[in-house]
């Protein structure tokens, strides 16, 4: 799966480069400054969806705003999957709170995400910096590229945590030091060995472990490691 995701990312990057170099008949650039055009493109694509709309939202930009506005006003008839960063998770939760739960699912990822909208596996909308300067968006109809985008989305989606689980998490659980401790809890390291590996005192390590168990509502260290995987805090 990891190799496939790397291949997908390479194909996506090549598509962006191609868009920078020349205009392609089936690729429609939308100027970043033309917010109305971007909104219209998002609305048209989502309305066209019959089966599945997959979208990745990164940061508080025009793309995120356009997608959230359209989904909030008219989500269409397709099943919608929204993948977002932790930074904007609270805003996404608020903006999409009124959507039917049987039609919409939101997950949160700590991975390096690329903003993209994929509709029915046939069309995608993604950022593309053009030679003329300024950020633009490309509507991509090339099947190989769209399938690569879907593959990349699916791989990240599978490792992401559900929005409800994310919102219940203590901010402490997303610290890098806590991630290292969780890795060692899952691996079954002794406290002494783990504390030495991450360069903290044994007392500090055990204090963190106690806090982690409480935050994850776990009764054992092994359960804490398993719970961390379920919540997307650790890779499966």
Automatic annotation (TrEMBL):
This is LuxR family transcriptional regulator. One of its GO terms (biological process) is regulation of DNA-templated transcription. It comes from Streptomyces violaceoruber. InterPro entries: Sig_transdc_resp-reg_C-effctor, WH-like_DNA-bd_sf. SUPFAM superfamilies: C-terminal effector domain of the bipartite response regulators. GO terms for molecular function: DNA binding. The lineage of its organism: Bacteria, Bacillati, Actinomycetota, Actinomycetes, Kitasatosporales.
